[in-house]
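ok, trying the design again with the full structure, not the truncated one.
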């Protein structure tokens, strides 16, 4: 009953309560984002949501306009404090974890929930039916701004572990578990823990 009705109801009510604060933050931050490189204030990221539906996830833009074209020498994306794509204002809003606030609009639209597996990036040519059982199971619920694995580990664990924790959440969705995840998320954000994988930390320390 919670997952089918009350979770969605809480998402709507909390989003409406948070909306004035979110709009205020956007009004304050938006001019700084635009003035730094005259680019768009928002970044629309294509994501795969519940039951495989593709949607646009709203974020405050924290990187330069052509960020998707800037990669490491091996063509991998950056995931460290030395990411050259992040703008000055982007670095600040990331530290304060407010770049994700516009996702409240996604929650109101029904694309997302406050709590759920992290929304995945759709791969060109890969349809929902092409996904394996684990990948499909993650999509049984709406993706969230934060989730079980993200709240505890953020970016410090690998893809397989993240999927394992996401599947656990899908099987155990409850009001109590969502409350715990909110508490863990606040704790992790405030302490700035588990921002990078072990491999990223080794590169940052000059071990590779």
């Amino acid at each position: 009953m919670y997952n089918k009705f009350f979770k969605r109801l809480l998402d709507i009510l909390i989003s409406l309560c948070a909306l004035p604060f979110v709009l205020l933050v956007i009004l304050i931050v938006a001019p700084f984002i635009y003035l730094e490189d005259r680019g768009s204030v928002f970044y629309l990221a294509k994501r795969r949501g519940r039951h495989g539906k593709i949607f646009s996830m709203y974020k405050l833009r924290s990187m330069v306009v052509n960020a998707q074209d800037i990669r490491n020498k091996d063509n991998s994306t950056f995931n460290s404090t030395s990411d050259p794509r992040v703008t000055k204002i982007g670095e600040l809003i990331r530290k304060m974890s407010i770049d994700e606030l516009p996702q409240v609009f996604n929650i109101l639209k029904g694309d997302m929930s406050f709590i759920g597996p992290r929304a995945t990036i759709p791969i060109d040519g890969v349809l929902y039916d092409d996904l394996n059982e684990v990948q499909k199971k993650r999509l049984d619920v709406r993706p969230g701004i934060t989730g079980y694995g993200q709240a505890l580990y953020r970016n410090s664990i690998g893809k397989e572990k993240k999927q394992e924790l996401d599947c656990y959440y899908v099987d155990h969705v409850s009001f109590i578990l969502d409350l715990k995840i909110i508490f863990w998320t606040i704790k992790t954000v405030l302490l700035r823990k588990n921002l990078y994988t072990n491999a990223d930390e080794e590169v940052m320390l000059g071990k590779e």
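Keeping the full-length input from now on. The chain has one domain: 2-204.
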